[in-house]
């Protein structure tokens, strides 16, 4: 049975304490390929301001910074945030915040891109609903949101990739643009009406 509550922050602290890159975001082909597919699916070449809650050690943030004037990236785990600060040092327009979803500072008002990569399935359905409301309220009309999740199911994940995808695709404030599904992950791009 999947848990009914958000995954405990202590679990992620344990992972980052044991390894500064616990998911191999810099080395594993899965992670590099997922980032390549994600950036290729972005409908616009350039964005003014992106939000990336749950940025981990900043591997994806580096690529978003190349496509955006500004990126607000956030991570609640101090070790991961420190690693992200190192990777992103000197990159103009990148602001890092020590916060996690559903904290509203993770998705500032007026963004035109929100990237939610492998974070939402760790949240309970009620929390995902609050995040969805925040994203829809913070995105400019015509702004895009990317939701990508591994198709496996971590033990501490209350939701599956498909559960999360259905929640976002079922929201009338968002119009689906891209649905990518392969043997490893699901990626949805939706536009704010």
UniProtKB/TrEMBL annotation:
EC code: 2.1.-.-
Span of domain Methyltransferase type: 54-144
GO molecular function, one term: methyltransferase activity
BP-aspect Gene Ontology terms: methylation
Coiled coil: none
A Pfam family of this chain: Methyltransf_12
Record InterPro entries: Methyltransf_12, SAM-dependent_MTases_sf
SUPFAM superfamilies to which the protein is assigned, alphabetical: S-adenosyl-L-methionine-dependent methyltransferases
Record key words, sorted: Methyltransferase, Transferase
Keyword Oxidoreductase: no
Ubl conjugation as UniProt keyword: no
The protein, known as: Class I SAM-dependent methyltransferase
Origin species: Pseudonocardia nematodicida
């Amino acid at each position: 049975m999947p848990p009914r509550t958000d995954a405990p922050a202590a679990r992620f602290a344990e992972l980052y304490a044991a390894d500064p890159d616990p998911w191999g975001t810099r080395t594993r082909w899965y992670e590099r390929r997922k980032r390549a597919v994600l950036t290729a699916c972005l409908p616009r070449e350039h964005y003014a301001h992106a939000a990336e809650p749950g940025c981990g050690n900043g591997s994806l943030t580096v690529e978003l910074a190349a496509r955006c004037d500004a990126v607000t990236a956030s991570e609640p785990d101090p070790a991961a945030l420190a690693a992200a600060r190192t990777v992103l040092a000197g990159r103009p327009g990148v602001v890092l915040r020590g916060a996690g979803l559903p904290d509203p500072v993770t998705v500032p008002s007026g963004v035109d891109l929100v990237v939610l990569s492998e974070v939402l399935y760790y949240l309970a359905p009620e929390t995902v609903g609050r995040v969805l409301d925040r994203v829809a309220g913070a995105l400019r009309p015509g702004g895009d949101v990317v939701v990508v999740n591994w198709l496996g199911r971590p033990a501490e994940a209350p939701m599956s990739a498909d559960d999360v995808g259905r929640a976002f695709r079922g929201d009338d404030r968002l119009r689906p643009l891209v649905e990518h599904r392969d043997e490893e992950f699901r990626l949805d791009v939706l536009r704010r009406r």
